[in-house]
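Sample intake sheet
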Amino acid sequence: MILGAHVSIAGGLEKSPLNGVKLGCESIQIFTRNQRQWKTKPLGSDEVARFRKELDHSGIRFVTVHASYLLNLGSPKDTVLIRSRDAFCDEIERCEELGIPYLIVHPGAHVGSGETEGLRVIAESLNAILKKKKGYRTQILLETTAGQGSSLGYCFEHLAEILGLLDDPDRVGVCVDTCHIFAAGYDFRTRRSYMQTLYQLENLVGLAKVKAFHLNDSKRELGSRVDRHEHIGKGHIGVKAFRQIVNEKRFAQIPMILETPGGEAHYAKNLRVLRSLSR
């Protein structure tokens, strides 16, 4: 297990590795910018150097970045789509400068244009962005969603379709959010249902495409299509399901990130629960 949590960058990006260490993290997720704003100032060379130095000294094994929630790479509105693509290009640029391997993003929402068109536009957006950032090492990870509203990516078929439309699919992977897939209708609480879910993921997307997990329990029931995170073992998913995930050898070398409620004040306890499940 390479367990961790989404940590704050308050006071500067270079503070985030130590924030993770204090919580007992081996991996961390961060924002590299204010995720509530479209515009942000470029990273300074000193800022990049400080982050890289602190990361090297921290012992943190993996860093992932979550893209801004403002983005919609599947928008039918040209103004929103152009703005989203430009902002996402900036996100990749920042990850590349900081040496961060994975940039996680919600695929997008069709906002009334329909799922087929929305998926096509998302793939078109990714193709345009990857072409513009040719040669970059940072990999984009499409996060599974709960399917709330018109959000796409709530089923493995959506991810498979997007990946199948990409010109350079090797530069795109997947981040599985446990709360999201549960809310979308994937049950993995028993051994049988867990294996069935993995079978579907393997056959539609490929387990090798899974590069990160978001480990969150769910406040809402199976198939609710509502994205509401809960502390590990306190929601409708339960600890047995997480025991299977953290002991899955095929996922042993990928970062598993907490995004549970209350942020850093509760992460240490959730990390202890997850580690207690390890065989």
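Comment: The two ends are 11 Å apart (CA to CA). The longest strand covers residues 172-177.
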